[in-house]
Amino acid sequence: MKSDMKHGIFLAVLAAALYALNSPFSKLLLDYMPSTLMAGILYIGAGLGMEVTALLRNKTGNEGRESRLTGKELPYTLAMIILDIAAPVCLLFGLTMTTAANASLLNNFDIASTAVIALLVFGEKISPRLWLGIIFVTASCILLSVDDISSFRFNTGSLFVLLTCLC
User: Fold this and answer.
1) Which range is most confident: 34-38, 68-72, 100-104, 131-135?
2) Rounded distance, CA 78 to CA 4, Å?
3) CA distance to 34, 35, 71, 152, per residue, from 98 (Å)
4) What angle (nearest 5°) sits at the alpha carbon of residue 79, between those of residues 51 and 67?
5) Degrees (nearest 5) of the Cα angle 5, 7, 9?
6) What does pTM read for this prediction?
7) Tell me, what's the pLDDT at 163?
8) Counting Cβ atoms within 10 Å, is residue 90 exposed (0-12), middle (13-18) or buried (19+)?
9) DSSP of 72-131, one letter per residue?
10) Helix (H) or strand (E) holding 45
11) Residue 111 near residue 137, CB atoms below 8 Å
């Protein structure tokens, strides 16, 4: 396996591990600060991480050349910015009303929502196998979100975590 591929796999696994740690650690910190402040702190951390990445790219000479945004891409960019601000606020607000374990499991809905959004917005093809996965993930998330099965009442915190995935 090429060195670049091993490096990419390592970074993907590292990103997934750090993302998985987000909910439990955020849940602990939410006892000491409001969800909107916590979202801001997460953004500061992401910004610092990107700054370190940029510095490393400059030092190693792997700067690359970025393309300029076009007018056609502007609506997508603005939507991404707005939704990217809303997502951590929804997640952290949801974490205040549900367990970290539940939120971590519900974050898997991101897979299903991303696939369906790609289909609806960008015309991506979805294979039958992926549809089956979407159905199972969605059904699992519904089960995790129900507070009381007898009245089929949804947990508000779970709904905010699912909204995070849509964002």
Assistant:
1) 131-135
2) 32
3) 15, 13, 41, 17
4) 50
5) 70
6) 0.77
7) 94
8) buried
9) GGHHHHHHHHHHHHHHHHHHHHHHTTS-HHHHHHHTTHHHHHHHHHHHHHH-----HHHH
10) helix 35-60
11) yes
Give exposure, 128-162, as e/b (b: 16+ Cβ within 10 Å): eeeeeebeebbeebeebbeeeeeeeeebebbbbbb
The pLDDT of residue 67 is above 80: no
Whether 99 has a pLDDT exceeding 70, the answer reads yes
Q: How big is the chain, counted in residues?
A: 167
135-152 tens-digit pLDDT: 999 999 888 888 766 666
Alpha-carbon span 82 to 50, nearest angstrom: 19
Cα of 74 vs its chain's centroid, Å: 22
Backbone angles phi, psi at 66, to 5 degrees: -90, 145
pLDDT in tens, 8-40: 889 888 888 887 788 888 888 888 998 888 888
First-to-final CA distance of the chain? 35
How high does pLDDT run on average in the chain? 86
